[in-house]
Request: fold
Amino acid sequence: MERYCSILLEWNRAIRLVGPKDAAGIREQIVDSLLPYLLMKPSFPLLDIGSGAGLPAIPIAILNPKADIVCLEPRAKRTSFLRHAVRALGLSAVSIVEGRASALDPPEGLIGKFSTVTARAVSEIETLLALARPCLAPGGGGDPGPRW
Reply:
């Protein structure tokens, strides 16, 4: 987790990924992103909508290195960060998809595939649920995550 914190801190200087600018603040963000995971123990495959800095997807992947996790992020700079972090951390089971979740047209290959969907600060809960629903496999669930 410390390696991820270092990578995030380094990239955060160039492209704003998270609010905190120091390691302690980033560690707090990482721990905060894991709280729902620790309470609910998601099943896999997992889709993280609007992955941004990789929270909670990358910390979950660090704890479950063989878990099938897909990070969906629309912004190119952030997908570059995610690809770098995943490579640097050796998280070979994590995939990065550059694209938007859309209730009208989810990205190809994401429909009906996931047992769990996570997101942080993506949209209002109703909108987020509409985005997540098409991606969930029958019987799948999700963690909408806290909004700050």
User: Anything to note?
Assistant: The domain at 2-143 is CATH 3.40.50.150 (Rossmann fold). DSSP finds five helices and five strands in the chain. Residues 38 and 60 are 9 Å apart (CA to CA). Confidence is low (pLDDT under 50) at residues 143-148.
